[in-house]
Write a structure and sequence with these properties.
Structural class: alpha+beta
Number of helices: 1
Mean pLDDT: 81
Strand order of the largest sheet: 2-1-4-5-6-7
Number of strands: 10
Strand content: 25-35%
Length: 212
Amino acid sequence: MKTTTTKDPSGLKLRCARAGFSLLEMVLVAGIFAILVTWMVSSQLYGMRVYTIAETKLVATAGARQVISSLRDQIREANSVYVGNCSSSWKTYADVTNGLMQGNALEIYPTASTNPFLICYLDSTTGTNRLMLYNSGLGMTNDLCDYITNQLVFDAEDAYGNILTSNVDNRVIGITMQLSQWEYPIARMGNTNFNYYNFYQLRTRATRRAIN
């Protein structure tokens, strides 16, 4: 069999072209791939950080909202409610009798009887400012919420939000909870190893349904 060779107009033999990538093309492809991988990893890390922030906020506020909701219901159903102060445990509770009706404790009587009763107070002896609830009927003290930063949690107000100076039957009980929460429990911020705290405030007002 004869082999024929095709020539171009200039008389040179045509050679079969071989497909392939040059070194420059390989470098460009590798660079683009590296950029895409970096972008994907950065997006994942950013998403994890946003999720952590959102989860922290939801957990911090959800627990506090449950506490406020429970206290509000107890105030509405109570026979009598008094604002006072505790220096340490519930045993040191004393009503506010002079000056503005505001303090770090609240005494709730569910019925006309003086027993059982509830005392919700701010315990700062552990250094974390925990809101505690003592139930005399059960003889138990429960931890309601931690990391409260304000000292005046409870107050007695009139219908316009003014703090009263004496106990009146139609008083409104105000509850204010300011919380500090570690914002990034697993994330490192900036170029340091220090994380920071975020602060929240929840407030509600409630009055007894049946005024004696």
